[in-house]
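RETRY 2/3 - previous attempt timed out on the joint model. Re-submitting the same 552-residue input unchanged.
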Amino acid sequence: MSRNGPLALAYHTLFVAFMLAPILVVCWVAFTPEGFLSFPTDRWSLRWFEAIARYPEFISAFWRSLWLGAISSAIAVAISVPAALAIGRYRFRGREALTALFMSPLMIPHLVLGIAFLRFFTQIGLGGTFAGLVLSHIVVVLPFALRLTLASAVGLDRSIEHAAVSLGASESVVLRRITLPLVLPGLVSGWALAFINSFDELTMTVFIAAPGTETLPVRMFLYIQDNIDPLVTSVSACVIAVTVVALVILDRAFGLERMLVGRSASHGR
Amino acid sequence: MKAAPYLLCLPALVLFAGVVIVPLGMTVLLSFHDWGQYKGIEPVFILKNWQEVLGDSYFHEMFARTFRIAFFVTLLAAVFGAPEAYILNRMRSPWRGLFLLVILGPLLISVVARTLGWALLFGGNSGLVNKALMGMGLISAPLPFMFTETGIVVALAHVLMPYMVLAVWASLQRLDPQVENAAVALGAGPFTVLRRIVLPQVMPGILSGAVIVFALAASAFATPAIIGGRRLKVASTLAYDEFLNTLNWPLGAAVAVLLLAALIAIIWGTNRLVERRYAQVFA
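RETRY 2/3 succeeded.
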């Protein structure tokens, strides 16, 4: 394979600068010592990070987002595992249609889902509740959980299970001691990808979150709508930092490329 | 044993039937209901909202803006994202993984934070982007980015760029490097190899990336809401206003259902085209 020429590398440098510029700028402004938006050059300060502590709504929204992501991703994985085993190992009528249905939240605009959930939850009395948020987040993160659990269910070597059965293991023992441990990596990475997507979800949540059940992205969005000041940059910088740490861990543990390229493959087909 | 796969799928099926299909159906119904400032939502079956959305020039302009923005975002993503995916694919081991992480990573970083970054970069006439462009001598006067379509297009292209790189990257993985080498051995220049060998083979990847980017750009919410401000409305921000400010839910539902229908038609049409045209590539 031939190497990239100097022109290609120059292009690459500009492209990477374009991709990183807005993210770095947020982190840069967050360290301003001034009371207004500015790019600090000689003096740096942590005052806007300290200021977050004085805004309890950001703190409580952060914890709510964390719990929401953790709970809804866990339930999504729990629902995905049996579905992935069925889709991955059996050929049955309606298999394709069911897969398409479970993957559909990827293709339905989150705006439409948000509106649909707002109407639905208001009608059944779940409007603005945490339970409603959990239900809706399970639905939108399920495709990510299913994709990765499915990949590991398909790649599973069935002869190991057969060996266990021939050695006298009962069905439940095979499931608990053989099948589940083998799909565990897919399960964990599916949970992680689902969690990140839940943690960042805004478009749908902004419709169904009420004051008191606002998630962190919703709180940040509503804050920015009113005014942009250094406080929201320091909150964003914290969110970016947490995501970057999670990204690096995920990349080391599972390979981000595999997680994401697998994710694109069934899009738009 | 025949029932096993159905039983295993049952929890997910119950969830999706109850929490996806029913609410979506209710939304379609909602778009036919009546609404008044004082009487609220009346569960009747009328075409008022649809006549308004399809007949009023305000909505025409707003939908035209939505799809114009989505078109230019898709174009930018394809023109700049596809070459980058190719360059990435030719990199060597440590760099390749590192830059893939750098370029795809933003996909998982909060959209609000990324858009905030663009709002800071654009920031009025003294924004960094204008300073940089003027410093390079590309423009003589500052360009307005905040509260303009241009600004929304640039910021959305950044937000959705990873999807395009990802789609092209995936199609490059299926490419046999020996074909390129063969072309070179037969005397083709680098430009000819790109145009005649690489491009035709990654075209399905570019098209499937384009479908994803277009669909996400047409329904994007946070970026047009923050960069476009309260005046410059697209379909999603208009629906948001109808639902949470004017409280005319039936009209908002009609806007959202129309957006969904238009997107399904576009995605379906493009997929048919891709499948027919590139059947041999997928086979």
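Chain B has a mean pLDDT of 89. Closing ticket.
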